[in-house]
Amino acid sequence: MNTPRNIQLNSVLEETAFVKKNPVLTVILLKIFLAIKYNIPAGRINIRMEKGVPDINNTALAQGLDASWLFRRFGKPGHAKDGIGPGLAIIRQIVSVSGFGVSYLYEDQLHHFILMENNH
Length: 120
Fold this sequence. Notes:
26% of the residues lie in helices and 30% in strands. The chain is of the alpha+beta class.
């Protein structure tokens, strides 16, 4: 499926513990991840939910993001003029109240957001 900015959406979906625990919060989470504002024109968004480990990733022009500010509300990289908005801070709250954690990885020009169940 392509979006108005010609961003390709790819998905490989299996049932996961997160979706089973929180169907409503999962919809909110996916809507935030599907925001195309920060993607590149003709880029892609990949949603992989396999073996209980959701990985949502998107293409990027820039280098990886600094995880120290990434999940803060309106976080900004260094002295940048524009922040990232509240979306990733909301994601962190959703996964936290759901008993999950979220990590970030930049690899092969893709921003990866990986959810994992907290085992404590």
